[in-house]
Each structure stands twice: as C-alpha cells, then as structure tokens.
Amino acid sequence: MKTTASPIAHRMIPRSIMCVGSMLVVSVLFSHPLAFAAETEPLSPPGKAVDAPRAVSVQNREPQQMPRGQAALTVGVPFFLDRNLIGELSVDVRYGHKFWWLVPYVSGGFRQTRLDPIGWPWATRMKKLMAWHITVGTRLEFPASQKVLPFVGIAVEQSYWAYTEDSTSYCHESYYPSAWRCYKARDWQVGHALKPQVGLLYTPEPSLALEFWVEYIDVVAPGMFTRSIGIIHPAVGLAWHH
Q1: List of domains in the chain
Q2: pTM for this one?
Q3: Whose CA is closest to 128, among 178, 213, 185?
C-alpha cells in the first residue's frame, strides 16, 4: 500500500531547513566578529597604538605670528630753515623691532644740500654741504586698521658735517652768512640733533609696508654752525616686516 505524504509535511520541511540555516549564520557572525572586520580594516599589531585621525581643532590652532622685525629704506628732501641752503637729497636705512605698539629702532643715513647761488659767490655754487648721521629712536604705532598704522616718534642723532671745498680764502663779512664759519675741505665736524617725527605705515601685505613720514631736525654743531639749524625732513620709503 502506497503511503502519501501529508501536504502539511511538505510545507514544513523547507521552512525547517531555512530556520536551521539562519541560526547557523547568526551563530557564526556572533562567535567570530573580527573575521569580518579584518576584511575592511586591518588590525594594528600588538603593542602599537592606533594613530588618531588628524583633525584640526579650532581651539587648539595656534594664533598667527605677526611680523616683529622692520627693515626700511627711505629717501627724502631736507628743507633747511635757512635762506642760504637748498636741500637736495637724503637717504636713510632703518632697522627696528616691534614690542606691542612700541618700535625701538636704530638708523643711519646721509643728507646733502647745496648753497643758494644768490647769497654765495660763484666759486661756492657747485659745492655741497654733507652730513652722515647715526640715529637711535622709538616709534609708537597705532593700529587704526588692518593695513593703516599712523605713528609718532622721537629720536636723537649724532651727525658728522663737512663742506666739499676750502672756504678759508674768501670767507669774510661782505657775503658770509652769520650761521657759518670758515671751513677746510672735508673737515668733518660733530653735531647732534633731536628729531620728533610723525608718519603713516600702509601695509598691503603682512611682510611689506610703505612708509610716509616727516620729522623736524634741530641740529646743533658748534664746529660747523654759529647757531642751531632747523630742518624739515619729509621722506617716503619701503619697509620689509619679518
């Protein structure tokens, strides 16, 4: 006699097989999780720390270091407050270091003037009055904006003056100015001066600046002049900030 299988048994067998297979897969996953993780990310060897991601934190970021050193080259025209002198040229080199708003500096330079041809004899008209100077001073810079810094300053200088010709042969009272003495050619005389200053820095780049300034120089040189000489000295230049 042929036995017929029950329809319910036919439906239960595939379901039983699927349940058993699912249980096997779940047991393998939970018993060996690192086997699947190793396929996506290799494990670090024992004893070696895992490098943390290099994320830049805003709080831990260091502030940008502002330039402190200043090296500048300027050229100008010295206007002597004396009708017998006509200023021609000045060249100055300056180096300073900035502390907060204060910039102490040291500078050196050269200035040159010629004699007024109306008040002097023909022999002196092509000659020059020259001076070298060494200056120590300080500036106070005000950060008006990110690119514009007005400043005021004060400085003292020691200067060395000389005339390019021997004037002892013709220096007499008929045409000789009252502030002048008789000179030998290139006989350098020591002087000193106090120099208040006001100016402006324009910085289109953090390391580059344009300088505009004017200073008043009160020169006292007893070996060169019989009285003090005033000079108004405007100048413009280029500065490298580092």
Answers
A1: 69-241 (2.40.160.20)
A2: 0.68
A3: 185
